[in-house]
Design goal:
The complex is a heterotrimer of chains A (345), B (386) and C (225). With 386 residues, chain B is an alpha+beta fold. Chain B is built from 12 helices and 13 strands. Chain B is 52% helix and 17% strand. Chain C is an alpha/beta fold and 225 residues long. The longest helix of chain C has 16 residues, at 176-191. Chain C is globular and about 50 Å long. Classes of the chains: A mainly alpha (345), B alpha+beta (386), C alpha/beta (225). Chains in contact: A-B, A-C, B-C. Chain B binds chain C through residues 5-6, 8-9, 11-12, 15, 19-20, 275, 278-286, 288, 291-292, 375-377, 379-380, 383-386, and chain C through 48-49, 51-52, 55, 57-58, 77-78, 81-82, 84-85, 87, 89, 91-93, 95, 97, 99-100, 104, 108-109, 111-112, 114-118, 120, 156, 160, 166, 168, 199.
């Protein structure tokens, strides 16, 4: 294990986050088993008090895990490549972690998605005098905990096993994707043009869904929240592929460099951070809106604040889509205006 | 102009801290001491290693010594230099004369120095290379009762006249060094005229030092042993790493102390259930109670951490610090004054600060959360009355 | 409805049937705004428990407490904490922080929500002046007499200009002059439109005629006095 300050920061933040989540999970379990709102029993009063502190703990845990994830991404993209021979960006670093680095990022995304949904539920729940959403929020927390544990475990494994002696070949990973001419220009069996179309069409669809939700008289009911969640998650995937396969070329100003991690480098003005940050926000808000709407529907009571939060979530999805689209498409438009052609013809 | 409003909760936390001066001071002192002790150990090890690396970087790429059946043997200086210079890739070769001689107080390192490239003396005056019968003394050399005479004994006995003293900044290298004229050195060490102890060789590319060694060895008519700078660096690094390992042993009580500090923080936060119950009865929320306790902990921990880190930095990097020589290296007389390189110290201190303050704050936060779960009913318990 | 309303309020202490002790049963009453209600009863009749229920410190085992129409007694603990910011409470035993000064004790409820400590201190001094405690502002609470403690507790309850003032034996340990001042402060609070509920068995309170309504609590039941 390398004792780089960044590694210590990631491990420390993860540990703090996990401690906070474990502390809260014990209460969440009690809530699932014994929650009796309105009861005068001392046990219920004590549970309500513990639920309050558990809420604070999860908020701390969420920020700690988010902070650890951000530091980890900064490390993977801008710090650790200096330590891994042959690595020029995050691709090489992830190669040196033998798979656990990529897995850790995946688990982190899952944990953050569930914890973000939990935050949305709790934001609304704080306005409910009887804590109507306490039980669904506890359920969500208990779902997020294993993912957070797996994320922290894989991160530790990745950082501990980071091979700083064996050279990696960043470019081989990226350029090995070269295939015969008839197969180049395709990803996952779909052509690059189709990915681009999915990105553009998805952005438009998400915009329409967001506006519909904002304008709906009761945005919590109906299928709109579910549609927004599915669309935002699918769109985030399609947009990432379109970015790497087509649009990133205008930032790199070179063809066929299908690397998402180089976008995070200073020579590309760290544009990967806002780009992937926008994708993350769109998927977190989209899925959070659905989790909140689902919980609100199941409780069967009118929940003051739920509609407001759902509308706010839809607005944020729209903003995230707009920011991503602008940042991703602007270099291509500039190139077209400057040179009169698209890269690759 | 109106003074800016400070958050009343923060001010309240500050008043709380001042209201209980002894527990506060005890906790702050424990944190500061913990950081001072562990910071000093870490910084010293790092500073020494950093400085040694920097100094060794100025040394020769290769050192050649002649061997015979009995071990080391003197080599003919002019012949050796000429032979080395004939090897392609060698840019500079210099014969060196040095050895150990007994002074009045203890052993001294005698080095022959004929060129004039010397740093200014301790009093700031320029130093000239010693002439026959003269000596320049390292910062820690004690000539004995008569400061005008330096008696030295090795293969022969010699009495030299001290003409200057090397600056204190050179103590890490030259604490016990005596610079003398090459002829005096040879006489003292029993070397024949024109002989040298070893040969310092520089090569065009430092990376080629290893590749050039066989060719260089073949250039001399006698067997030689060649040492590369990288080996010397490895030797020093190994020694420093071992010392660093010993420093980690000092870390065990530090960890125990941290555990005690954390336990103290936990005990204090949990023991306030009734007070928290009263605050809740007066309309404070759980979040506000936790914020108060975290503010209080920050007000204790941050100044204590700054103080501890400052103390550690000063103890290690104050120019001319001499305690490590006597305390860690057992240097009984005139321990060397160290001028260590502080590069990278800030990051190390920051790391250490986070490692000490982080667990303390985490303990305060989690135990505050535990303690803040009190209810006004806890206040009423035992009294049954409003 | 504005004010505090109790509907069929019941309170039983003890979880198991054998240890259960009924403190209050079927208490229904209205404590309107701008009125001072006096609750009297023998020691152990349940006055303090009733006040604790009204202040949201305890949760009833039956019935409910409505504050301005909201069922606060069924609210979660955190919500009741926030609601309690509108409530001024005088405990029977003053419950002051002994290591704090009188002024600090008085401003304590407002510390987390105030923007300036100076403004808080000014508000605290104002209410201390009303209760002739100005000279004691800097004194440690531990050094106060019983009467001074109780008046400090009343000042603490009044400093936030509460919508509901719940006071348990506010005139305890007071000489006649200070008892009159305490009653005057309660009356001023009522005049602001607050709900004022006072539990007392001090004959000076009963005889002063400040109460708009008088409730008698006996064996856990509340009756108009």
């Amino acid at each position: 294990m390398i004792w780089h300050p960044l590694v210590l920061a990631v491990v420390g933040l993860d540990l703090l986050g996990l401690l906070a989540l474990l502390f809260a999970a014990a209460t969440a379990l009690q809530v699932l088993l014994h929650w009796a709102p309105g009861s005068a029993a001392a046990a219920q009063i004590a549970l309500e008090r513990r639920a309050e502190t558990a809420e604070l703990a999860v908020r701390c845990g969420f920020w700690a895990i988010l902070g650890a994830s951000l530091v980890l991404v900064v490390g993977i993209t801008n710090v650790l490549p200096e330590l891994v021979p042959g690595a020029m960006c995050g691709t090489g670093v992830l190669q040196a972690t033998a798979g656990s680095g990529a897995r850790a990022l995946g688990f982190r995304f899952g944990a953050l998605m569930l914890l973000y949904g939990w935050r949305m539920l709790e934001t609304v729940n704080r306005r409910q005098p009887q804590g109507t959403l306490t039980v669904p929020a506890a359920r969500l927390l208990l779902l997020a905990l294993p993912l957070a544990l797996l994320a922290a475990g894989d991160t530790l494994q990745a950082l501990a096993g980071l091979d700083v002696l064996q050279p990696v070949d960043c470019c081989a990973v990226v350029y090995d994707q070269f295939r015969p001419p008839e197969l180049s220009g395709r990803a996952a069996g779909l052509s690059d043009e189709l990915w681009l179309g999915l990105f553009g069409g998805g952005a438009f669809l998400l915009g329409v869904l967001a506006v519909s939700l904002v304008r709906a008289s009761d945005p919590v009911r109906g299928r709109w929240p579910g549609a927004l969640a599915a669309a935002s998650l699918l769109w985030a995937g399609a947009a990432a592929v379109a970015l790497v396969r087509v649009l990133a070329a205008y930032t790199y100003q070179v063809l066929h460099h299908y690397c998402p991690w180089c976008l995070f480098l200073p020579e590309h003005r760290f544009v990967g951070f806002p780009l992937f940050g926008a994708l993350l926000l769109a998927s977190l808000e989209g899925s959070g809106v659905w989790m909140l709407a689902l919980a609100a529907r199941r409780c069967g009571l009118p929940l003051p604040g739920a509609a407001f939060r759902v509308r706010a979530g839809a607005r944020r999805v729209a903003w995230a889509v707009a920011v991503f689209s602008l940042l991703a498409v602007a270099p291509a438009l500039w190139w077209r205006w400057r040179f009169g052609v698209w890269i690759g013809g | 102009m109106k003074p800016p409003h400070l958050n009343p909760l923060l001010l309240w936390a500050a008043r709380d801290v001042i209201r209980r001066p002894w527990p506060t001071l005890l906790m702050a002192a424990a944190l500061a001491l913990l950081l001072t002790v562990s910071g000093t150990a870490l910084l010293f090890s790092q500073g020494l290693s950093q400085t040694a690396r920097r100094l060794l970087a100025h040394g020769p790429d290769l050192v050649v010594r002649r061997l015979n059946a009995g071990g080391w043997a003197p080599l003919p200086a002019a012949e050796a230099v000429a032979a080395a210079r004939r090897v392609p890739g060698v840019t500079h070769a210099q014969a060196r004369v040095w050895g150990v001689a007994a002074g009045l107080v203890g052993p001294l390192m005698v080095i022959a120095r004929a060129d004039a490239a010397l740093p200014p003396a301790a009093d700031g005056k320029p130093l000239a290379a010693p002439r026959p019968g003269e000596a320049l003394l390292g910062p820690g050399v004690d000539p004995g009762p008569d400061p005008q005479r330096l008696p030295l004994t090795a293969a022969a006995a010699l009495e030299l006249r001290p003409v200057g003293r090397l600056p204190a900044e050179s103590a890490l290298l030259g604490q016990d060094v005596v610079l003398v004229h090459p002829d005096d050195a040879r006489r003292l060490l029993g070397l024949p005229p024109g002989a040298a102890v070893d040969l310092a060789v520089d090569v065009f590319h430092a990376d080629e030092a290893a590749a050039i060694q066989p060719e260089l060895a073949a250039a001399f008519p006698w067997p030689v042993r060649i040492t590369a700078r990288s080996e010397a660096v490895g030797l020093y690094s190994g020694g420093l790493a071992r010392r660093g390992g010993l420093m980690l042993i000092a870390g065990i009580p530090a960890v125990l102390a941290l555990v005690l500090v954390v336990a103290g923080a936990v005990r204090e936060a949990v023991g306030q259930r009734r007070a928290v119950g009263l605050l809740k009865a007066l309309g404070w929320t759980t979040g506000e109670v936790v914020r108060l306790q975290v503010c209080r902990a920050l007000l204790i921990a941050l100044p204590a951490a700054c103080l501890g880190m400052l103390a550690a930095y000063t103890l290690v990097f104050r120019p001319g610090v001499s305690w490590p020589g006597s305390l860690l290296f057992g240097w009984r007389t005139a321990p060397p004054r160290l001028f260590l390189d502080p590069a990278g110290a800030f990051l190390t201190l920051l790391e250490l600060g986070a490692l000490v303050v982080g667990p303390y704050l985490a303990a305060v936060l989690l135990s505050s959360l535990q303690g803040a779960a009190a209810d006004p009913q806890d206040l009423l318990k035992g009294e049954g009355l409003l | 409805m504005d004010g505090l309303v109790t509907r069929h309020l019941g309170l039983v202490f003890g979880a198991t049937p054998g240890s259960a002790r009924t403190v209050l049963q079927d208490v229904s009453a209205v404590f309107p705004r701008g009125a001072l209600a006096l609750v009297t009863g023998a020691t152990g009749a349940g006055k303090s428990s009733l006040l604790s229920l009204l202040a949201g410190l305890l949760r009833p085992t039956a019935g409910e407490v409505l504050a301005d129409g909201a069922p606060v007694s069924r609210w979660g603990a955190a919500h009741r904490d926030r609601w309690r910011r509108r409530v001024g409470i005088v405990f029977q035993s003053a419950n002051l922080f002994s290591e704090l000064s009188v002024l600090e004790n008085v401003i304590l409820p407002l510390v987390p929500r105030s923007r300036s400590l100076a403004a808080l201190r000014a508000a605290g001094r104002e209410v201390l002046a009303e209760l002739t405690l100005t000279d004691l502002a800097g004194a440690q609470a531990a050094q106060l007499s019983g009467g001074e403690r109780q008046r400090t507790a009343l000042a603490r309850a009044l400093v936030g200009r509460p919508d509901f003032l719940i006071a348990d034996e506010p005139t305890a340990h007071q000489d006649p002059e200070n008892a009159a001042r305490v009653l005057q402060a309660l009356a001023a609070c009522r005049a602001r439109g607050a709900v004022v509920v006072v539990a007392a068995h001090d004959p000076r309170v009963v005889g002063a005629g400040v109460a708009d309504r008088h409730w008698q609590l006996a064996a856990g039941r509340l009756e108009a006095g």
